[in-house]
Amino acid sequence: MASPLSADRLLRALKAEGVRVVEHRSWRTHNRNHAGSWGPVHGVMIHHTVTRGTDSSVELCYNGHSSLPGPLCHGVIAKDGTVYMVGHGRANHAGAGDGDVLAAVIAERALPPDNETDTDGNRHFYGFECINMGDNKDPWPPEQVSAIVRASAAICRAHGWGKEGTTSVIGHLEWQPGKIDPRGPGVSMSDVRRRVAERLRHPADWDPEEDDMPLSDEDIRKVAVAAARQVALYKDERLDRRDARQMWDDAASPHTTWQFRPEGAERDAWGYLSRTHAEVVALRAAVAELASAVAAGSDSVDADDLVARIERAIASASGGD
């Protein structure tokens, strides 16, 4: 049995997960609790608003409309990733859905098809409305999808959900037959669940964009050792840790690195580099000599002699081979 988070705990959880939060009006006491209970809660449900514009969408979700009074969710996720809190308690967002889906959410197992409307979802789910037309054309910016992931992970983390899977986060389309939300380019519930699961493997303040840090020397050494072991296995050879470390030490030596020579090659890496350098130097000298001769109007340049001198320069500079 999971009791809903208090308004303060919910707010702290969202902020700890890196969600940018705006508290809208009297959201802490704005609910539909008089119409039924809220809780026990078992998951998070994602919707789209079928509206444009942040201010008007937030007001709509706070107030509701003539046929459906507000709040219509607990938080509104704007295009820029800001989450506007509009309610705390029972909210008109999930409606009646499939009890088999709820059972799967509780058990954190694969979701069955939603083909019934026999269970009150408003009682059991946190709800987030995301500003999008839902016409399969209106894009979902990365900032908005990231906020969906962070807000969902925050609630899962606070309740201890997601240990056996990630189906604690579902879309309205997976709950109630006939619903399509969330829909559009840039969002899918399978991707959201995958990213929520990844977040839950890290501390709440984890930022995947900052996780791509340069490798330390020790990290590089470990990678080299692993690579060396794979090479040995590929060649069907045995390689112990001492041999692997020696391969790393050898690979770390600039001298040894330049002596790398692929099978079938005429020379090692340093040989190719030094020969190329010698050819460039010799050719630049030859071009300079030809340019001088042309500028002076001379017709006494012996082409065969010039080529022979270039070849001798190259041979001398590259060790005579």
From TrEMBL:
CDD domains: PGRP (cd06583)
Record GO terms (molecular function): N-acetylmuramoyl-L-alanine amidase activity
Domain N-acetylmuramoyl-L-alanine amidase: 27-183
InterPro entries: Amidase/PGRP_sf, Amidase_domain
Family matches, as Pfam families: Amidase_2 (PF01510)
Gene3D superfamilies the UniProt entry points to: Peptidoglycan recognition protein-like
GO biological process: peptidoglycan catabolic process
Coiled coil feature spans: none
UniProt protein name: N-acetylmuramoyl-L-alanine amidase
Lineage, uppermost ranks: Bacteria, Bacillati, Actinomycetota, Actinomycetes, Kitasatosporales
